[in-house]
From TrEMBL:
Keyword Ion transport tagged: no
Oxidoreductase keyword on record: yes
Biological process annotations from GO: carotene catabolic process
GO molecular function annotation: carotenoid dioxygenase activity; metal ion binding
Keywords: Iron, Metal-binding, Oxidoreductase
Official protein name in the record: Carotenoid oxygenase
High-level lineage: Bacteria, Bacillati, Cyanobacteriota, Cyanophyceae, Oscillatoriophycideae
Residues the record lists as binding Fe cation: 174, 221, 287, 467
InterPro entries: Carotenoid_Oase
Cited Pfam families: RPE65
Cofactors (names): Fe(2+)
Cofactor remark from the record: Binds 1 Fe(2+) ion per subunit.
Domain of life the protein comes from: Bacteria
Amino acid sequence: MIVTSSPSQLAKDWAKGYTSQPNEYAYQIKDIEGQIPPDLQGTLFRNGPGLFEVGGESIGHVFDADGMLRVFRFQEGKIYFQNRYIRTEGYLKEQKANKILYRGFGTQRSGGWLANIFNTNLKNAANTNVVYWGGKLWAMWEGGFPHQLDPETLETIGIDDLEGLLNQETFSAHPRIIDHSFINFGVSGMSPQTLTIWELNKQRETIKSSSCPLDGFSLFHDFLVTPNYYIFIKHPFKLNPLPFLLGIKSLEQCLTFDDQNTAKIIIISRDSQQMEILETEAFFGFHHGNAWELNNKIYLTTICSDTFPQRENDKMELDKMSFEQPIFGQLWQITLDLSSKAVTREPLLERSCDFPSVHPAFVGQENRYLYLSVASQPTNKAPTQAIMKYDQSNGKYQIWSPGERSFAGEPVFVPRQGEVAEDNGYLLSVVYDASRHRSYLVILDAKNLNSPLAKCYLTHHLPQGFHGTWTPQNFLNGVSL
Ligand SMILES: [Fe+2]
């Protein structure tokens, strides 16, 4: 029988997973259950929120917490952990002042509207993703430029405009890598906006870029790419910027989900940059799984919610979270018929889920397996507490659950060296165990999730994180394990 926590215990445990970790560590992990596969050689870079208060004052939203890297380096069956804050301008100034100086997505400066009026300079928290490409390590945040970091020391080198490529644009935290191209997008303006997409080669040279005007306001967090298309989903939002400009409300509180409108699916040719927009019922979702083309149709998987989880105020108060209303989405498949322009949607999973990923060689190709963080029970009213391997060919799945008081973060798929089979690799996920207030890295065999290959216990907790990536280099120069 699977034991589940009471709703109040679950909310308390979940909130505890967003406790600040002010310390910075660097050590070899010695407390290991199981065995680290010797062929697992490289680095898991992860990013996420680290500090939820400054000078005793709570920030308003986890999206605004300062970014902290969590890095796991593997060498010959040994593992080395390091965490380090990204020294953004906001982090340095707020730590020096010991108070909140910046507004954020859901954070206001204390002092009422007078302390916020006409202040549109949101803190670049550099907290959403971390990617190594073309010799550069970037901490990414979707509202601004990336921060470049030293992959060996994790020291912050500074804001990076990619040799002048970026001007007014943002640089999203969800790049896609396909056929050795690094593809990312940015948005400039408020309403209307301009969407810009760049393709960079391994030398970080721009091999393609395109810009498209967009009507109204869009909140793009993620996108999809296939061999011939970029695909963006414009969920129906309205933005009333006036209360934000006047300092009365946070940016988050000025957003309204418009369920009377439609979701627009924007399909842009990678070749001609021609744009086509198809429509479907209103829905919201932060993350997409994968997209592929077949017989003049595009298939895509995405996380769908009926609405955007809007809060009544700008207080964190995560322990008061009610899971009675779904706050995570469900997995859907959407089919875009490029001939008839028809859009069809089909639910694949009832349970709450997030952070879908595939084998990196299958980005833009028809994939069989999707890896996700999921609710431990088949319900859509729960946080993500388990890791799932979902088989899109038959709807069957495998689940690994760490226990009723633990929370499993994004699974990152690492292919076994030299192998191309879609599930021939490892799944790496950071688990927060509220019963011990500690975190560990779990290594699962993607072929069989039943029993972990290894659990690598940290000596402390890590706040629940967002995204990360794997690179085969371990950047362990001079470190002896
Ligand atoms: Fe994301």
